[in-house]
Amino acid sequence: MLKIQHKINFTSLNTFHLTSIADNFCILSDLSQLAELCKTLATYPQYFILGGGSNLIAPSKYDGLIIHNQLRGISLQDFDDNHYLVSAMAGENWDNFVAYCCEHGAFGLENLSLIPGTVGASPVQNVGAYGVEVKDFIESVTAFNLEIGDFVTFSNAECNFSYRNSMFKHNHQYLVTQVSFKLPKQSPMNASYGDIAKYLSTIEQPTAIDLRMAIIATRQSKLPSPDEIGNAGSFFHNPIINTVQAQELKQKFPNLPIYAQADPNYTKISAGWLIDNLGLKGYRLGHVGVYEKQALVLVNHGGADKDELLELVKFIQQQVKVNYNIQLNIEPIML
Ligand SMILES: Cc1cc2nc3c(=O)[nH]c(=O)nc-3n(C[C@H](O)[C@H](O)[C@H](O)COP(=O)(O)OP(=O)(O)OC[C@H]3O[C@@H](n4cnc5c(N)ncnc54)[C@H](O)[C@@H]3O)c2cc1C
Fold first, then answer.
1. Containing H/E element for 107?
2. Contacts of residue 318, Cβ cutoff 8 Å, sequence gap at least 6
3. Cβ(109)–Cβ(136) under 8 Å?
4. pTM of the model
5. Calpha distance 16→313 (Å, rounded)
6. Strand partners, 154
7. What is the pLDDT of residue 192?
8. Other residues' Cβ atoms within 10 Å of the Cβ of residue 150
């Protein structure tokens, strides 16, 4: 049975800890609740599927229904001689799932260790870190279509993945219930990133577990834990701009990190560097600010709401536009 609660304090359910109240809230813990959920949706002006709340800008007041996904369960089976098929229900904690895979000899997700949130949200923005994107290992995604009340399974190609993007980001009727991953039995050991390679160089024959530990240590040294200070991880997308403009910028700012793309007409540039180079690391505006160790992360020093955060966002976007003629787009979902 689905229990709807009212006037829930949403502040601790979003990792930015933005002050927020949800008028209506329910926990989805069993697939059998979906039919009832589907029927009840028409009585609310809007709805939102919540995982770990780690990629979210929550409003002071939400008048719709928040559906908190807590579907649990993991299964592992042979896919072929070289791969396992590991399926996880959407409400599983992402990092616990990565740990489970490593412990069971199913590799590839090590580079995505310690990303907050749930398995179900991972395909939504195609989470990525340290040279790996989750799309590289997703076999299929099963979702419940809240508009027609039925399950549908999408192949990797049908998810339409791209940089921090997928078709789920634009089709909110799909509530992801389960994600299946095809994971190699031998770790691909993707350890090319500078800090990671340096950490592993001290170990004689590093294993996938060592790689996971290297990723965790590196993340902990650079990114603030939401338990200590409210944040949503990287706040702005790294802009992908045309290569001519990127080369012009590189000439003007030789230290600007740029990354070639599959299409040579486009180049990705570091949003964090652009902000840092404006001297904004550690900048503070009221209760919000730019994290002192990483300019791509905005933080809530306590007591901030969405409006205050958006003032800071506007200021940074204006500064970047004026100084580099680049439009920064935000990564978290605006609820
Ligand atoms: C400290 C920190 C570090 C981070 N580092 C990274 C990083 O390295 N790489 C990266 O890519 N991201 C990173 N993030 C962002 C975030 O962790 C990911 O986007 C994560 O996948 C969000 O998961 P969530 O469960 O918290 O989603 P939520 O924030 O709850 O939701 C995000 C979006 O997904 C949708 N959604 C959630 N669950 C479902 C579902 N079951 N079905 C359909 N839609 C759903 C929501 O409706 C919403 O649109 C970081 C965040 C923090 C706070």
1. none
2. none
3. no
4. 0.95
5. 14
6. 141
7. 85
8. 12
CA distances from 254 to 164, 240, 250, 257, 290 (A): 27, 18, 5, 8, 24
Q: Which amino acid is at 211?
A: L
- How far apart CA 221 and CA 293 sit, in angstroms, is 9
* Pocket residue to mutate for ligand 1, from 13, 25, 46, 124, most atoms within 8 A of Cβ: 124
Count of alpha carbons within 13 angstroms of residue 62, beta-carbon side: 31
Q: Which tokens hold the place of 197? A: 């390679």
Residues contacting 31, CB < 8 A, separation 6+: 71, 144, 177
Instruction: Count the neighbouring beta carbons within 10 Å of the beta carbon of residue 3.
Output: 8
Q: Per the structure block, which two tokens stand in for 220?
A: 């902990």
DSSP 221-261: HHS--TTTSEEEEE-BPPPEEEHHHHHHHHHH-TT--EEE-
CA of 178: how far to CAs of 67, 229, 283, in Å?
16, 31, 40
Could you list the mean pLDDT of each consecutive 10-residue stretch along the chain, which spans 335 residues?
95 97 98 95 96 97 98 98 98 98 97 98 96 97 96 98 95 98 94 88 92 96 94 96 96 94 94 98 97 96 97 98 97 93
Q: What angle do CA 128, 129, 134 make, to 5 degrees?
A: 35
CA of 14 to the centre of ligand 1 (A): 10
User: Given 164, 166, 180, 270, which residue is catalytic?
Assistant: 164
Residue having the nearest C-alpha atom to atom 53 of ligand 1: 232
Ligand 1 atom at shortest distance from the alpha carbon of 54 = 26
Domains along the sequence of the chain with CATH: 5-69 (3.30.43.10), 74-184 (3.30.465.10), 230-334 (3.90.78.10)
Residue 203 CA to residue 25 CA, distance in Å, equals: 48
CA torsion sign for 106, 116, 210, 215 is: positive
Q: Is the CB of 132 under 6 A from ligand 1?
A: no
Q: Is 278 in the pocket of ligand 1 (CB under 6 A)?
A: no
